[in-house]
Specification:
five-stranded parallel sheet; 2 domains; inorganic pyrophosphatase (n-terminal core); alpha/beta; six-stranded mixed sheet; Diaminopimelate Epimerase, Chain A, domain 1; 13 helices; 41% helix; globular
Length: 364
């Protein structure tokens, strides 16, 4: 039998609660709670999130809390998704009811939030989003991470996460936007969040990403990072990264227009996306192919430690079947010739830089 009572919170107003006054379940909308109790369709919600990705995992943890404690879904089923689904995403049937965070817009999602410049597969999906936008369907490409976007919108509704989650969100923003003090910090992995991020890269599939979502809902960064499954993966990943740097050194070169270009065999090693700037600190961009036995990936990044306007890397990659942000992008290579695709990306960056230079000269 539920026991209802209420208390007053100056930041929220009157809050209806269930349980003992010492540790109540907070309910800010009693009608929504009652609907959840008696609605037969609300057994579970299916949450789709970008994986493996630190920002995607943290975003899924925040969204899970929101779905559980504000939308009152008793179960949250997690589904990791990645950009190799871009071409078929709008045609895919999401399990219902569905929520999507830190990933492409889907018309079947009753909750959706993202911050990527390439969040819309086409103009029709962007127009549909504009018609549907609401407190549970929102987008902002000016925000540096999806975790920050969700935290800004929902923090007041999730007091149970408290100050502990502030640090997790700050690191999600730093990792997703490459805001490190220097390249050595990005490669050293001294911080717990960076250790978790590297451990993520070591697991195939989305099972470990799902595991981390559940951990982040109740544990701090230090607690999650200290877990044996995280430390084991991190230690192995750091070793593979050292091997990857040795391989990268043999293939990377700097073009005349300041792009660190590489084509590296990453089978059985790990190539850190910041490593090109270890070899060429003054390179404006990095662009390269990372090859494995079952997949080749093109990755491109603006040097985060130099100040200059960036070519729209996410847009460039989106036109070629990938996606990303203004300063970072990637393409899962399927049918294209990897070297031809790399040449196209490098040429697009060069053309954008040339146009910007000509425009600046014309204004002067």
């Amino acid at each position: 039998m539920f026991r209802f009572h209420e208390r007053y919170d100056p930041s929220v107003g009157f809050i209806f609660c269930v349980g003992q006054p010492q540790s109540p379940l907070m309910i800010t909308d009693i009608s929504a709670f009652l609907r959840s109790v008696w609605s037969p369709r609300r057994n579970a919600v299916h949450l789709y999130f970008h994986a493996p990705c630190f920002d995607g995992v943290v975003s899924a943890a925040i969204a899970s809390e929101y779905l559980a404690h504000v939308k009152f879904y008793p179960h949250v089923q997690l589904h990791g998704v990645n950009y190799d689904l871009r071409d078929t995403w709008l045609r895919s049937e999401l399990k219902q009811p569905a929520a999507v965070v830190d990933f492409l817009y889907h018309p079947q999602a009753e909750l959706w939030a993202d911050h990527h410049r390439t969040a819309f597969v086409n103009s029709q999906s962007r127009a549909e989003y504009e018609r549907r936008r609401s407190p549970d369907i929102f987008y902002d490409s000016n925000v540096s991470s999806c975790a920050v976007l969700l935290w800004t919108h929902w923090r007041a509704k999730l007091p149970n996460l408290g100050e502990r989650f502030e640090e997790t969100v700050r690191w999600a923003e730093r990792i997703d936007s490459a805001r490190y003090d220097c390249v050595d910090q990005a490669l050293a992995f001294n911080a717990p969040a960076l250790q978790i991020s590297l451990a993520l890269a070591m697991y195939s599939g989305d099972g470990f990403s799902q595991h981390l979502v559940w951990l982040f809902r109740t544990q701090s960064l230090e607690e999650v990072a200290s877990r044996p499954e995280v430390q084991t993966a991190f230690s192995f990943g750091r070793h593979l990264q050292e091997l990857g740097q040795e391989r990268l050194q043999d293939t990377i070169r700097l073009t005349d227009n300041g792009i660190a270009v590489f084509d590296v065999n990453a089978q059985d090693v790990l190539v850190n996306r910041y490593a090109p700037f270890h070899f060429f600190p003054r390179a404006r961009y990095s662009a390269g192919i990372v090859r494995r036995s079952n997949q080749a990936k093109l990755t491109v990044m603006r040097n985060p430690w130099l100040e200059f306007p960036s070519a729209p890397l996410g847009d460039i990659c989106a036109e070629l079947g990938g996606g990303g942000h203004q300063r970072v992008g990637s393409i899962i290579i399927r049918d294209s010739n990897p070297r031809e695709l790399l040449d196209r990306v490098v040429a697009e960056i060069g053309a954008w830089e040339e146009q910007r230079t000509e425009a600046a000269a014309a204004i002067a």
